[in-house]
Amino acid sequence: MEEVAVKKKVLIVDDEPNVRRxxxxxxxxxxxxIEAEDGRQAxxxxxxxxxxxxxxxxMMPKMDGLTAxxxxxxDPLTKATPIxxxxxxxxxLNIKLSQQMGANGYVTKPFLPQExxxxxxxxxANPLLSEQPV
Length: 134
Prior knowledge:
Helices cover 43% and strands 19% of the residues.
C-alpha cells in the first residue's frame, strides 16, 4: 500500500484578497491553504485548523497581525506554530516588533514567489525556529 504524503497547512492572514490569492497561487501545489481576513479570524482558524505555519499581515482591521501573533505565541496550545510576518512596510522597527511578539520570520511585500516559499520551507525545516523568534 502506497503512503500518501500529507500536505502541510499554511494559514494566510491578510485583509487584501489579492494578496491572499497570490499567496495561494504560489503555495497551493505544495501546501493545503487556509485563509483569514484579519487577526480575529486567524485566531479562530489556528484553533480549528491547526496550521503548520502562518503568514500574517501586520496591518489589518479588527485585530492587527502583531496582536494576533502575540496571542498565538503566548497560548501554550499554539505557541509552537511558526509565524512569518508579511508587510508592505519593511522598517527595522517593524522587524523588531515582530520579533518581540514572537514571529519566526519576516517577508516584505511585494515578495518574490521563491522568497515566500523559501521562508516557509526554512521555518518548517528548522523546528528550533518555532521556539525562538528570528
